[in-house]
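Thread: "does anyone have the structure for this chain?"

Original post by V.I.:
We have the sequence but no experimental structure in hand. Need at least a predicted one for the grant figures.
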Amino acid sequence: MPDNSIGTPLPTEIDTTIAHEARVYDYWLGGKENYPADRALGDIIAGHIPTIKTMARANRAFLGRAVRYLVNEAGITQFLDIGTGIPTAGNTHEVAQQLDPAARIAYVDKDPIVLAHARALMDSTPQGRTRFLHADLHDPRSILDHPALAETLDLSQPVAIMLVAIMMYFHDNDHPEEIIATLLDAVPAGSYLVITHPTADFDPEAMAGVAASAQASGIDFHPRSKSETAALFEGTTLVDPGISPVATWRTDLTDRPAAVEDADSAWYWSGIGRKA
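Reply from O.Q.:
Generated one for you, tokens below.
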């Protein structure tokens, strides 16, 4: 049966007068959970990158392909999805449980806007389980020690750690490699790490404008190069095709062939690594 309890150790107040990264992303995906401040920032960023909505969709499509790979080819049935964002079509549990109804998913986000929509993330199959943890990736132990995690996932068995479009909110002085290493240390060999990350490699000037606009709205944003993104996978072995443009990673796994984009249509790097 679905497990509907939610831990709420973080503040739960929502301020709709300032832009919020999860709501801006929702706006780009065509969602309805956004407000004027979010749309204003979204449009400013679109002024720097007119194809930003295409990029958001490409990043979301990658999530589906990654989950299909992990379930069908890697045999993964447990997912720790951190930086979940506002629920929309094709959430991790929807894709995973369609392929394996017994799949278990723990979602994690620190943002109260996501907490407000968390019920949609817990619509599990009877055979599986989903759970939402209101916790902060800046303190990975707050995730790993959360009692709801042990009730949802068996960390003695392989887990896929999903960090899709989240690590750009961590600057180098946040020590993102140490955060990821803490997560990897908690899961056994045979587990996987999934990352997508925006980059300035495709157009440095445009991405600099995005970073400045986000910062002006109070949102820390730190794009990384291909080599910097690869460094986040330390402790794992990258599966083919390695660090790749998000729009072209394993497009054979797409459920909508017509949706495949050119390599440079989305300025994100992506990859999946396996812990040996």
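V.I.: this helps a lot. Residues 15-274 form a domain with the Rossmann fold fold (CATH 3.40.50.150).
O.Q.: and The chain has one domain: 15-274.
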